[in-house]
Design goal:
single chain, Rossmann fold, ten-stranded mixed β-sheet, 16 strands, binds nicotinamide-adenine-dinucleotide, binds L-homoserine, binds sodium ion
């Protein structure tokens, strides 16, 4: 059979990686897919740069529509990024009856409902393994490997840049700003790292996993997103003393009244495997009622790790291209008529443990006033640490760990504690998960 023909929209890091992996492993890929997969056209505004990557092996163009409107192209790979042009091009490719592979989590987390509906109506596939945790086959695991399960929760380190920063802050005792500069110098963080450090990139990925796990639409606008920019070296140190690591965790969980969907710095017990994921690596924990807890670990970014996922999607599409659309794996794991409207819970209704750090006056009665407020809100204390104050010092750091409680209740208790004259600075609050 003739090779299936692929057009690459954008040939930067991921696009180049995809081209090289397809070239290098073509024999294996043909053996698995049943036919060859060939990049026949690539698009990049800088045509000479694209030519430098593909040589004479593919036609190079600066016009994306030269690919989208080419009847010989079967699959379009979108690795341009962003939500504007990429959305337009993906919808245009679908309208032309082409299957789409994309690494673009921002696009799907925000416009997924529109894009998946357009693909369903046209009977084409939109595959996005590369969009979540790069080379780790987590979409495959959730959509196919775990279909027997009622998924209970997912917790993941799904942004390499921030995990690198947190690892360095812990190892070297440095503050956030210092390590960010280092991450940029090493090329881990982008020149504009906002989406990474503010938690947005992780929330895009979590939104996609949550939709697939629980059979709900992609709803990035309902996600709670908090990054690591406010995190202080002192909290990483205190957490360590209490037996915890702080990770930027994406967490989605089924509750009786809805689904939690949240990204924020989180204390995780230091003896959990996921707490020991260091540097730019990614890891995702999935809890299913039948399988128990499973853990997926690997590279969430980089040219070839991400290309590994793009090419796997190309193989899947090649295998299924001639199948009746109803016999393919549904985009969001559940059939479109089985997608539910279970609500995403507001943060006030989320249940979590907490780490609280307060700067307090070092005098009699302070601790008892604080514990009284917690008791009045039915919040149970799990552990405590008081920094030894140096001779003559009149204030100290008090750190309290609590058992699980509802966030709204914690907010009320925090407001009261903050109002105490003996609490001398804004209270630091970090959520805590046992992930058991
Ligand atoms: N880099 C990674 O490790 C990684 C991992 C997972 C997912 N992703 C996602 O993959 C996508 C691409 O990321 P990347 O790191 O390869 O980006 P990149 O900046 O290296 O590549 C983007 C490419 O698109 C081209 N491009 C931009 N606008 C264009 C236009 N109007 N017409 C033609 N070409 C245009 C650029 O010239 C460049 O070649 C993004 O959605 C990103 O979030 C990246
Ligand atoms: N900026 C992302 C790249 C992969 O999506 C990260 O740091 O993980
Ligand atoms: Na993946």
């Amino acid at each position: 059979m003739n090779a299936i023909k692929v057009g690459l929209l954008g040939i930067g890091t991921v696009g180049s990686g995809t081209f090289h992996v397809l070239q290098r492993n073509q024999a294996e890929i043909r053996g698995r897919a049943g036919r060859g997969i060939e990049v026949s056209m690539v698009c990049r505004r800088d045509v000479a740069a694209a030519r430098a990557v593909v040589g004479d092996a593919a036609v190079v163009t600066a016009d994306p529509y030269a690919i989208i409107n080419n009847p010989e192209i079967d699959i379009v790979v979108e690795t341009i990024g962003g939500c504007g042009l990429a959305r337009e091009l993906v919808l245009a490719a679908i309208a032309q009856g082409k299957h789409v592979v994309t690494a673009n989590k921002a696009l799907l987390a925000v416009h997924g409902t529109e894009i998946f509906e357009a693909a369903r109506a046209k009977g084409v596939m939109v595959a996005f393994e590369a969009a979540v945790a790069g080379g780790i086959p987590i979409i495959k695991a959730l959509r196919e490997g775990l279909t027997a399960n009622r998924i209970e929760w997912i917790a993941g380190i799904i942004n390499g840049t921030t995990n690198f920063i947190l690892s360095e802050m812990k190892a070297k005792g440095l503050d956030f700003d210092v390590v960010l500069k280092e991450a940029q110098r090493l090329g881990y963080a982008e020149a504009d790292p906002t989406f990474d450090i503010e938690g947005v990139d992780a929330a895009h990925k979590l939104t996609l996993m949550s939709a697939i796990a629980f059979g709900v639409p992609v709803q990035f606008d309902k996600a709670y997103v908090e990054g690591i920019t406010q995190l202080q070296a002192a909290d990483i140190r205190y957490a360590e003393q209490l037996g915890y690591r702080i990770k930027l965790l994406g967490h989605t969980r089924r509750r009786e009244n809805g689904i939690e969907l949240r990204v924020h710095p989180t204390l995780v017990p230091a003896n959990r495997l996921i707490a020991n994921v260091e540097g730019a690596m990614n890891a995702v924990l999935v809890q299913g009622d039948a399988v128990g807890t499973t853990l997926y670990y690997g590279k969430g970014a980089g040219a070839e790790p991400t290309a590994s996922a793009v090419v796997a999607d190309l193989v899947d599409i090649t295998r299924l291209a001639t199948a009746d659309p109803d016999h393919r794996v549904p985009h969001l794991a559940f059939q479109p008529d089985a997608i539910s409207n279970t609500p995403i819970l507001p943060m006030e209704d989320v249940i979590s443990g907490y780490y609280l750090r307060m700067r307090v006056a070092d005098e009699a009665g302070v601790l008892s006033r604080i514990t009284t407020i917690l008791a009045e809100h039915d919040i149970s204390i799990d552990g405590m640490l008081q920094r030894e104050s140096a001779d003559g010092e009149k204030q100290t750091d008090l750190i309290i760990l609590t058992h699980e409680t509802v966030e709204g209740r914690m907010n009320k208790a925090l407001a009261q504690m903050q109002g105490l004259p003996t609490v001398l600075a804004p209270i630091v609050r970090i959520r805590k998960e046992d992930l058991a």
